[in-house]
Design brief:
Rossmann fold; 205 residues; alpha/beta
C-alpha cells in the first residue's frame, strides 16, 4: 500500500463523504443496529457518531492502516465501546455467528472480492442477525450505466479501487441474503454516475 493510499486518500475520502445528506442516511441505516456489531470498512469512523447507545460493542475493521489516526479521534468521542482492528472483509478473523449486526457503508464498491466479503458477512452473522448496508453502485438507467463504465478505470485509480458499476442488490441476493427493507435512489450531492444509492437491511436466507 503506497503513500497516496495510506496518507492522502483517507483524508480526502473523509472530507468527501462527511456531508449532511450522507450523514442523515447513516443515521437511518444504523437506527436498527443492535447487540454485537461488526463494521467492515470502518474508515475514518464517520459512522461512530450515529451508533445507537443500545449497541453492546462494535468491532471496527479496516484494511488501510492510514485511517487509524482519524478513526481514533472519533472512537474516543463516542460512548459506544469500539475496538479498531486492521483486516480484510474477504477474510474475517471471527467465529461463525459472532455478530448480531454487520454494517458496510460505501465499502462493497472497493473490496477486491465482493462475493467472498459477502460470504464472510453471512458466515459471521448470528441466527436472526441483520446486514445493514448503505452503498453506491450500478444505476438503473442505461445512459448512466454507460458513463459509469467509461469512468470506472479513472475512478478506481483515484479513489483506491472504488468501482462505479457493481450491481449491489444482485450481489447481495446472490450471496444468500433477502432484503427486509430496500430503498434505491439518486443522492442529491454527487453526479448521477456516482450517486445511485442502495440503503437496505438484509438477513440470511
Amino acid at each position: 500500500m503506497g503513500f497516496y493510499q495510506r496518507r492522502i486518500l483517507p483524508t480526502f475520502l473523509d472530507k468527501m463523504t462527511n456531508q449532511p445528506e450522507l450523514n442523515e442516511l447513516r443515521l437511518e441505516q444504523l437506527a436498527s443496529a443492535r447487540g454485537q456489531l461488526l463494521e467492515i470498512g470502518f474508515g475514518t469512523g464517520l459512522n461512530a457518531a450515529y451508533y445507537p447507545r443500545e449497541i453492546e460493542r462494535v468491532v471496527a475493521l479496516d484494511s488501510n492502516p492510514g485511517v487509524e489516526r482519524l478513526a481514533r479521534k472519533r472512537i474516543e468521542a463516542t460512548p459506544v465501546p469500539i475496538e479498531f482492528m486492521l483486516g480484510a472483509g474477504e477474510r474475517l478473523p471471527f467465529e461463525n455467528g459472532t455478530f448480531d449486526t454487520v454494517v458496510t457503508t460505501l465499502v462493497l464498491c472497493s473490496v477486491s472480492d465482493v462475493a467472498s466479503a459477502l460470504a464472510e458477512i453471512r458466515r459471521v452473522l448470528a441466527p436472526g442477525g441483520r446486514y445493514l448496508m448503505l452503498e453506491h453502485g450500478l444505476a438503473d438507467d442505461a445512459k448512466v450505466q454507460k458513463w459509469q463504465r467509461r469512468l470506472n478505470p479513472l475512478n478506481r485509480a483515484v479513489l483506491g479501487g472504488c468501482n462505479l458499476d457493481r450491481p449491489t442488490t444482485e450481489l447481495v441476493t446472490a450471496a444468500g441474503f433477502r432484503f427486509d427493507s430496500l430503498r434505491q435512489f439518486y443522492a442529491d450531492g454527487p453526479p448521477r454516475f456516482a450517486g445511485f444509492t442502495t440503503l437496505g437491511a438484509a438477513a440470511a436466507t
